[in-house]
Design brief:
The structure holds three protein chains of three kinds.
Chain A (H helix, E strand, L loop, with lengths): L5 E6 L2 H5 L2 H14 L6 E6 L11 E4 L3 E3 L7 H10 L25 H4 L17 H6 L4 H9 L2 H11 L11 H10 L5 E7 L8 H8 L1 H15 L1 E8 L4 H16 L4 E4 L4 E9 L9 H9 L13 E2 L2 E7 H13 L1 H5 L9 E8 L5 E6 L4 H8 L9 E6 L6 E3 L9 H6 L8 E6 L4 H15 L5 H18 L7 H15 L3 H5 L2 H9 L1 H9 L14 E3 L9 H5 L5 E2 L7 E2 L9 H5 L5 E3 L1
Parallel strand pairs in A: 1-2, 5-6, 5-10, 6-8, 11-15
Antiparallel strand pairs in A: 1-3, 3-4, 7-8, 9-10, 11-12, 13-14, 13-15, 16-19, 17-18
Chain B lengths: L5 H10 L1 H8 L4 E6 L2 H6 L1 H14 L5 E6 L11 E5 L5 E3 L4 H13 L8 E4 L6
Parallel strand pairs in B: 1-2
Antiparallel strand pairs in B: 1-3, 3-4, 4-5
Helix pairs in contact in B: 4-5
Chain C lengths: L10 E5 L3 H12 L3 E5 L14 E2 L4 E2 H14 L3 E4 L2 E9 L2 E8 L14 H5 L20 H12 L8 H12 L4 H11 L3 H10 L11 E6 L2 H5 L2 H12 L12 E6 L11 E3 L2 E3 L7 H7 L2
Parallel strand pairs in C: 1-2, 2-5, 8-9
Antiparallel strand pairs in C: 3-4, 6-7, 8-10, 10-11
Helix pairs in contact in C: 1-2, 4-5, 4-6
Classes of the chains: A alpha/beta, B alpha+beta, C alpha/beta.
Chain lengths: 594, 127, 292
């Protein structure tokens, strides 16, 4: 293998690719060649680095220098300065919000500094398309150890001792799940990786599949050995084409190396994995619906118990992140793992931090960390100095957590208690300009649309919830609506058949609990305090701030804004359709909404 | 690629260990080549490629090379700074291929400072 | 009845007690007419009572039907004549004379509680059956058939092959034309109803043709709180198209997608395979311009 003095770890996760990583790679290689550096400096495409908001990203190793917001235009300067003359380029480095001097090194940036990587241990370190790099980072070692010197029972014991719980959201103890399937006498058995990451605002699974597919395959192989399965499926969301590509390639490579297929590592153990592409139905993340989908039946959840089965045979279904944790636990031991985290929740959890936050991206933190640390220390707080309002966890099944609970420590039980849930790990930060009624309406609209329609509480219940919330957002709320929301929400929780239905009222109930005043403002005063609900707001122009630049009047689709150049503009309220273009384009923050 | 056995995993790992160490930023020795315009003019590129060849030839896994800008002593270029982990960095001046090889053998691999080429031990104080 | 005069009778006879007949009867009865509802089967309800879901909206059949059955059953103005058939009709509009044969049911409707014991214990026949009408061969163009069959050849097995097949077909044709689905049903011997049910369940499959370019506005939570609804509105306005439809010139389809996992750069849209991050309303005309 060729030796290079420097490796440029160019992030090729979906986020960065959307901003032109591949074009940057081409320019980078051309520039390196121009300076005759192609034999000294290597360009490596890695999976998602996690700091998606700053993309496209690149980390220069071994120096650990972190570059952000790359463009095809600034590459030439970068190559000449840094790689030829050895002068790192300050203006492409990360500058923390509110500060002036940049932080050159990745490990000093607060976003990365406070994270602890287990499931995402290889992110940004390896080329996901090269199995040897995974092996060099102790990859497949756990599998070899398990196959040559461990019994299935011992593996399950180790996983149980580690305290690992399902990372898909519900938090069922993984060891107990495996044990029950091992004891089931029916054969053949199956293992499934649930990568149907449907929660809007969550992208942990995508990132792990894109950055480190082999850690999932290794985890699944260990699981298969422990329960006695020969066939596995990765149920992958089709909305993630890059993840499908990487996973397909990883499986091929693993087969070629004899790490999947017949007689793995010469130990006589056979295990095969196939990909099953999901087709864009949120409910398929629910395990009983997921197996129905693989079986080719309409993916409607089934009543449990009896336990979920695939073709009426035992099956272990775990989330991507759970599987990725398994090899590390087998390598470093249950004791090591169980020392991280809290009493009931062990290890780390990956969250996708997004919404109104400075450092959006993927973070892996030890359980028990407070929300405040995640939002302010790692996330860097709220942009534009706006006020923090709430953080939404658990996607459409979770709830909102207000500022008063920011010191809550993050584990399965605490989040449940606060009326939300761990969920798969979406964490959406909301500022003062987010309307809680509108957010609740959004989630109910989502679940109403995604409800499979099998049971009435979910299908009709979500519809009625939506009707009431729509009414409130239009300022047509009726007396007693809030009480009705409470009552109906509780009823759906009790009566719905599957997890999707039982949790769909959470966004409504939790926001009602913590932000009742906002609901009351919609109901009684016909007012949207956050300035979001179209029917309840008006746009006006502040005559003190308006410079009369005419930008808004040019962009207004309705020609509703009039005014001479350099004079205050006026919005004709009869023509205004409240699209908000004027507010978006105004450079002086002169457009007010109330 | 034929099917592998458990013991092959270590072999593959060993094979690209250096690459991985480089990315983890963990190393025993770091050699910085001063590659300002003056350094390049004086032949720093040659020093760099010599070092790369040596590392390749000796199968060294724990030494990293890094380029930095002009060290401010343009008349004595090409220069390198050798820093063993936990030790004070040493600056060498007026280098050529032969001297570089000697420094690599003695200082980088065996830990003996080559006094005859050394300019100074330690770095300027910064700030 | 009144002999041939100009005077019209305030009563209506509805033939057939399916969901259509019931609704007609209810509307008329509510409007004040006396309604005679004639049904040849032993109960009103018709075919819909035998269905689980109805095309194309996948509404629950019983939920649509049951309230109407109950209303018809109890309505003062509707006189139901089940297990009856029309023998003759005379007269003209407003003045018909109809002869109805009420068949003997050998059950006293006043006393029957609908327990079903008689069906269970009947020796002659107590198996539920549905008449299967024969199906004509699928009408499909030759080149289309070849393309479909190529894909079908890749898969064998039971119903678990449907989703992968539909994925491939959807990629090949960009949507799922009816004749293509019928061909799948024919070759793989899977009922078309089942295929339709699967195809209509998943968002990834389209039962409508698509525009040349597909614009998807991500409405995941992160994008939503950062303004995705306004982005969507602006696209709809600029392209003069409803969400879910194609533009008149067939150039663009406008859709939403539930999160493309690019939340760090919200709001996000995708056009075909390209992803755009940090979208604002002002740049939308440029994005559209790029693809026209």
């Amino acid at each position: 293998m060729k030796r290079f003095r420097t490796h440029l770890m160019l992030c090729a996760g979906t986020g960065c690719v959307s901003n032109g990583t591949f074009a940057i790679k081409e320019v980078l290689e051309r520039e390196l060649e121009k300076h005759d550096l192609q034999d000294e400096v290597a360009v490596v495409m890695t999976g998602c680095n996690g700091f998606c908001a700053q993309g496209p990203l690149m980390v220069v190793q071994p120096d650990g220098i972190f570059y952000q917001y790359l463009t095809t235009e600034n590459i030439s300067h970068l190559v000449e300065e840094h790689f030829l003359k050895g002068r790192p380029v300050k203006k492409l480095m990360y500058v923390p919000p509110g500060e002036e001097s940049p932080i050159p090194e990745l490990h000093s940036i607060p976003f990365f500094k406070d994270q602890r990587l287990i499931a995402m241990r290889n992110r940004g370190m390896i080329d996901p398309d090269n199995i040897e790099e995974y092996i060099a980072r102790d990859g497949y070692k756990a599998l070899a150890k398990v196959l040559t010197s461990s019994t299935p029972e011992a593996v399950i014991q180790e996983i149980s001792d580690s305290g690992l719980r399902g990372r898909g959201g519900a938090g069922f103890p993984t060891g107990r799940k495996w044990d029950s399937r091992r004891k089931d006498p029916r054969t053949p058995k199956y293992v499934v990786c649930n990568a149907d990451e449907g929660d809007p605002g969550a992208f942990m699974d995508r990132s792990i599949v894109e950055a480190d597919p082999h850690s999932i395959l290794e985890g699944m192989a260990i699981g298969a050995y422990s329960i006695g399965a020969f066939q596995g499926y990765v149920y992958l969301r089709m909305e993630y084409p890059l993840a499908v590509k990487r996973m397909t390639f990883a499986i091929e490579q693993a087969k070629e190396y004899g790490l999947l297929g017949d007689d793995i590592l010469g130990t006589g153990f056979n295990f095969n994995i196939d990909i099953f592409r999901g087709a864009g139905a949120f409910v398929c993340g629910e395990t009983t619906a997921l197996v129905a989908s693989i079986e080719g039946k309409p993916p409607e959840p089934r009543q449990r118990p009896p336990r979920t089965t695939l073709w009426e045979k035992p099956v272990v279904i775990n989330n991507v992140e759970t599987w990725a944790n398994v090899p590390v636990i087998m390598n470093l031991g249950a004791k090591w793992f169980s020392e991280i985290g809290t009493e009931t929740s062990k290890g780390t959890k990956v969250f996708s931090l997004a919404g109104n936050i400075n450092n959006a991206g993927l973070v892996e933190v030890p359980m028990g960390i407070t929300l405040r640390e995640i939002v302010y220390d790692i996330g860097g707080g709220i942009p534009k100095g706006k006020e923090f309002k709430a953080v939404q966890t658990g996607g459409p099944s979770g709830g909102v957590i207000p500022a008063s609970l920011l010191d809550l420590s993050v584990d399965y039980e605490q989040l449940d208690k606060a009326g939300s849930m761990m969920g798969s790990g979406g964490m959406i930060v909301m500022d003062e300009n987010t309307c809680m009624v509108d957010v609740a309406r959004y989630f109910v609209e989502f679940t109403n649309d995604e409800s499979c329609g099998k049971c009435t509480p979910c299908r009709e219940g979500s519809y009625v919830l939506l009707e009431i919330l729509n009414r409130l957002c239009k300022g047509e709320g009726k007396q007693g609506d809030l009480e009705l929301l409470d009552e109906l929400g509780e009823a759906i929780k009790d009566a719905a058949q599957c997890g999707l239905g039982q949790s769909l009222p959470n966004p409504v109930l939790s926001s009602l609990k913590h932000f009742r005043d906002e609901y009351k403002a919609h109901l009684e005063e016909k007012r949207c305090p956050a300035g979001i609900c179209k029917a309840l707001i008006t746009f006006t122009i502040d005559d003190e701030k308006c410079k009369g630049c005419r930008l808004c009047s040019k962009k207004c689709p309705q020609d509703a804004i009039t005014g001479e150049a350099k004079e205050t503009h006026i919005i004709d309220q009869d023509k205004c359709i409240k699209c908000g273009v004027c507010m978006d384009v105004c450079k002086f923050e002169a457009v007010l909404v109330a | 690629m034929s099917k592998i056995k458990p013991e092959d995993l270590d072999k593959i790992g060993e094979k690209i260990k250096r690459t991985m160490l480089l990315r983890e930023g963990s190393y025993r020795a770091k050699v910085t080549i001063h590659m300002g315009t003056c350094g390049i003019a004086a032949g720093a590129r040659k020093v760099m490629s010599t070092l790369l060849d040596l590392i390749e030839k000796e199968q060294v896994k724990d030494v990293i090379l890094s380029a930095s800008s002009c060290a401010g002593l343009c008349s004595r270029e090409p220069m390198i700074t050798v820093e063993l982990k936990g030790k004070t960095p040493v600056k060498y001046v007026d280098l050529d291929e032969e001297k570089t090889m000697k420094i690599f053998q003695a200082h980088v691999l065996d830990g003996e400072v080559v006094q005859e080429y050394a300019l100074a031990i330690g770095s300027e104080r910064v700030g | 009845m009144i002999q041939a005069t100009d005077k019209k009778v305030g009563a209506v006879l509805v033939v057939g007690g399916g969901v259509g007949g019931m609704q007609a009867s209810l509307d008329l009865a509510e409007g004040g007419y006396k309604v005679y509802l004639v049904e040849k089967g032993p109960s009103i309800g018709g075919v819909m009572a035998q269905l689980d879901k109805t095309f194309p909206t996948n509404d629950c059949a019983m939920c649509t039907l049951a309230p109407r059955m109950v209303d018809c059953g109890g309505h003062m103005n509707i006189e139901k004549m089940t297990y009856s058939e029309i023998e003759s009709i005379e007269g003209s509009a407003g003045n018909f004379k109809v002869r109805v044969r009420k068949k003997a049911r050998y059950v006293d409707p006043e006393k029957c509680t609908g327990c079903g014991d008689c069906v269970e214990s009947c020796l002659v026949r107590n198996i539920v059956y549905i008449d299967q009408p024969g199906r004509a061969p699928v009408q499909i163009e030759e080149d289309v058939r070849v393309r479909v069959d190529d894909i079908l050849d890749r898969y064998s097995g039971g119903r678990e092959i449907i989703v992968p097949i539909l994925h491939d077909l959807n990629e090949e044709f960009r949507w799922l034309p009816p004749e293509v689905l019928c061909r799948v049903a024919e070759v793989k011997e899977i009922p078309i109803e089942h295929i339709l049910r699967i195809a209509s369940f998943y968002n990834a499959f389209s039962l409508k043709p698509k525009g040349k370019n597909i614009i998807r506005v991500c409405t995941g939570t992160a994008c939503y709180v950062k303004g995705a609804p306004r982005i969507l509105d602006t696209f709809a306005r600029e392209l003069k198209v409803e969400v879910g439809d194609i533009t008149d010139d067939g150039q663009f389809s406008l859709e939403t997608v539930n999160c493309v996992g690019c939340c760090g750069q919200s709001p996000v849209i995708t056009v075909n395979e390209d992803i755009f991050g940090y979208v604002n309303q002002a740049m939308i005309p440029d994005v559209i311009g790029k693809y026209t």
